[in-house]
Write a structure and sequence with these properties.
The protein is mainly alpha-helical and about 110 residues long. It is about 65% helix and about 0% strand. The protein has 5 helices and no strands.
């Protein structure tokens, strides 16, 4: 459900879609696109104007890396680091946090 667009936002939904597509073609993730929209263009949420960023990218068939995929890559890097540095307890703690976050992301996506 899209609420009425605030009066202080001057961008139109077609312009927002084009902006999101440009940023995605530059290799940005949906989360990073959201930050750029907020910081550089003054758009607090894309849902206020049109749709979610990931919905816009799916409609245009633009592939993007999900949060779970990015988290999985980070976990693999930390695991390789721990294999080389067995006494690095901070890395072990970080690995546990990342694994917990990955489980949470997977549970959210199942629902």
């Amino acid at each position: 459900m899209v609420d009425a667009k605030p009066s202080w936002i001057k961008i139109k939904s077609a312009e927002l879609d084009n902006l999101v597509i440009e940023l995605a073609k530059d290799g940005e993730s949906p989360a990073k696109i959201g930050l750029v929209l907020r910081d550089k263009h003054g758009i607090p949420k894309s849902k206020l104007i049109s749709k979610k960023i990931s919905s816009i990218l799916k409609e245009k068939n633009i592939a993007f890396k999900s949060e779970a995929e990015g988290m999985q890559e980070t976990i693999e890097k930390i695991q390789k680091h721990i294999e080389k540095n067995k006494q690095d307890n901070m890395a072990k703690k970080s690995l546990e946090k990342k694994l917990w976050t990955l489980r949470e992301l997977k549970q959210i996506n199942k629902i």
